Amino acid sequence: MIPSPETTVGELASQFPQTIRVFQRLRIEFCCDGQRTLADLCRERRLPFDELADALARAVATPPPQRLDWNTRPLSDLTTHIAEAFHEPLRQELPRLRAMAVKVQRHTDPYKHVLAVVRYELERFSTDLEPHMSKTERELFPIISRGEAGRGCEADRGEFERLRAVLQAEHIEAGLALQILRRATHRYQPTDNACATLRGLYRGLKELEQLMRLHVHLENNVLFPRAAALLSEARIERPS
């Protein structure tokens, strides 16, 4: 496949996961901005389209590693994967990172200002993310499950679109918080004399961003479009 100017970032990232490495290398947002076309992207970033298209075409031509194809697997498998591979690790990792931020803020004077920003944004991110994940699991996933089982109702369609809009907006807010963390920490690069705890914190923040990007990509570019298509085509149970 040779990408066209009208091809979207999300389309490539979902159909050809090999292209994600290209977007990551160029620091191109492929999760929250998945609806942007390559033409718009190149214009905004002042990238020659031919060079980007060539890099993406080479990535597409590279055989992808063996992995589950979430574009074809049952949606119930995908929702389970999102909960197990992203939600649970985030619930375990965020308290650890917050505790590390508190610890290093107490004894690392040269980083006082940076760590104040890190601690504030990490607290805000964590406070917002838990209800976001709960809403996804308790409200969105059951709608998708009912639709896949042919037990959906007319109200599910409207509620799905409402939740989708809310969750996508929250994804953008999470991305902004991570952007602040990345900038404040100079892309998670501690100085040579940084203590082991600070190094561990920066490494954990970098891994957090990577986890969130894949998490948001799967929801925005795979789960939401597939669920929308399913609910629009599904047989709707009428009240008796």
Mean of pLDDT: 87
Find the count of extended strands (DSSP E, 2+ residues): 0
- The value of Rg in angstroms is 20 Å
Shape: globular
Could you estimate the helical fraction of the residues in percent?
over 70%
Please name the defining characteristics of this protein.
mainly alpha, 2 domains, globular, 240 residues, 0% strand, single chain
How would you describe this structure to a colleague?
The protein has helices at residues 9-15, 20-25, 38-45, 49-61, 75-107, 112-148, 154-184, 196-233. The protein has 240 residues and is mainly α. The protein folds into two domains: 9-61, no CATH class; 75-233. The N and C termini lie far apart (49 Å).
What's a concise summary of this model?
By secondary structure, the chain is mainly α. It has helices at 9-15, 20-25, 38-45, 49-61, 75-107, 112-148, 154-184, 196-233.
Task: Set out the fold topology.
Blueprint: H1 9-15, H2 20-25, H3 38-45, H4 49-61, H5 75-107, H6 112-148, H7 154-184, H8 196-233
Helix pairs in contact: 1-8, 5-6, 5-8, 6-7, 7-8
